[in-house]
Amino acid sequence: MSFSPADQDRITHIFFPHLKRKTQEVLEAGGRFVYYTTAETATCILTNKQIWMRNTTTMNDYSEVDHGFNCLNASYNAAPGNIFNATLNACFPGLADEVKDFFNGWWPSIRQDTFIACVSEHLPEEDQHGRLSMWRAYGGQAGVALVINGAVMFSKSNTLNVFSSPINYLNPDAFAAQFEQIAKNMESEVDFIKSLGKEAVKQIVFIMLRFAVLCTKHPGFHEEREWRNVASPKMHPTDHATLGVEIIRGTPQPVLKLNLQNNPEKGLVGLAIPDLLDRIIIGPCEFPQVICSAFLKLLIDAEVPEPEKKIIVSDIPLRKL
Predict the structure, then answer these.
(1) Is 319 within a domain?
(2) CB 200 within 8 A of CB 92
(3) Which InterPro entries match (predicted)?
(4) Which pairing describes strands 168-169 and 216-217: parallel, antiparallel, or unpaired?
(5) Is the residue at 217 inside a domain?
(6) In this structure, what DSSP letter does residue 303 have?
(7) Domain membership flag for residue 56
(8) pLDDT band for position 316 (50/70/90)?
(9) Nearest residue to 146 via CA among 253, 38, 6
């Protein structure tokens, strides 16, 4: 699908208001994200120039995909869904059933063939120390935060076929309220929606429903400020990732390995490590200076300019048990 910038902005306003709002917030805060992980994993990323995207069936987040589906299903079969389907049919008779059948047809693949890599919004005030709750959740005994420039996540190029979306932290009632608002947005824009054409609208609505399922989490996780980078190789094949099998915490599992390389000929820039990496924050640990020295060597090997300026040791004190 290809739309003018004005039409694309209008589509986002109607169908993806949360994405529009969160994108603006991130850009106003500097447009950066952060990947909290262990020093071991961060070393692998910089050495191999890859990030592994995990299948949702093997992640902690699998139950959260169920949470998103349950929220959508409850809203779809209640008043918000009635408004939503009536508006679709007002635009194109019979479209509501076509969308439902299309989504249900792809649902097994959405559950089984979705790979994600999660990052968190990074705020300027976290530059020196990171976020304590994220160190505790993801840093292990030696945590590292890779702060990244988010330009590639907002790129207009579809070459990568990896799509970024903010998490929406909602309980079923809050989800229903937002779903109803989208339905009302559609009601007020029927003529514009008709102008897009039936097949385009069908695809847009499918994307909306898919990401509503994949990117809705319980509100108890809201402080993570998470965004998900989503790939579905069967639905959207990509030349920039390879599917392999790795053993993670004792479990063999499929992993989609995303190559951190630019492809300027196809409009893909900002993904190579020297462009992508804003800074590294060494988390609370027993040997921060040793880890700092190791990552300096990794940055030199990755040809990152002025690598010594990219590494910060967090000033959060290590709490020993």
Answers:
(1) no
(2) no
(3) DUF2971
(4) parallel
(5) yes
(6) T
(7) yes
(8) confident
(9) 38
